[in-house]
Amino acid sequence: MKLNKIIKWGMIALIVISVALLIWGFSRGFEGNAVDILLYWTYAMLGLAIFCCIIIGLIVGAKNNPKSLVKIGIVILGVAALCFIAYLLAKGDPAIGYTGAPVTGGTLKLTDTILNLTYIAGGAAILAIIVGEIRMAIASKK
User: Fold this and answer.
1) Does the structure show a pLDDT above 60 at 101?
2) Per residue in 41-62, pLDDT tens?
3) What is the DSSP string of 37-64?
4) What is the value of pTM for the model shown?
5) How far apart are CA 135 and CA 120, in angstroms?
6) What residues does each domain of the chain span?
């Protein structure tokens, strides 16, 4: 019961901070520092969400079925391998026609890696939809 209250108040605090930052961003006109702070808050929220999903998944998985930890470990290794492959495929070439401030090679490589991951995830989603529909069509004929 106590954990539920902690989670509830934590979520309320995160929502209040998010709304306050959003209002602050609107009042500043989303210029300069305001955008950076909002982006950093977005990164923090995304990191917190990923961290909570992994930790809660591990705790619940260990409690309900200790053997499921092996499956979770395999999934995490698979995602890490996918990220590594996307990194290896990333060229890191400068953007054509870009006239802004110079960007480091590491930033270009990371940007291309994220684009590759987006392409892979999009392709996997489309493939999953197609395969799912085919499986449902086959299962409904039986």
Assistant:
1) yes
2) 888 888 888 888 778 777 877 8
3) HHHHHHHHHHHHHHHHHHHHHHHHHHHH
4) 0.60
5) 22
6) 1-66, 67-142
Question: Scanning the structure block, which residue is given the tokens 């999953």?
Answer: 128
More confident residue, 118 or 95: 118
Separation of alpha carbons 41 and 48, rounded Å: 10
Q: How far apart are CA 96 and CA 78, in angstroms?
A: 33
Provide the Cα torsion 80, 86, 88, 93; round to 10°.
-140
Q: In Å, how far are 17, 35, 43, 82 from 11, measured between CA atoms?
A: 10, 23, 16, 31
Contact of 58 with 69, CB cutoff 8 Å = yes
State the helix-helix crossing angle for 68-89 and 33-64, rounded to 10 degrees.
150
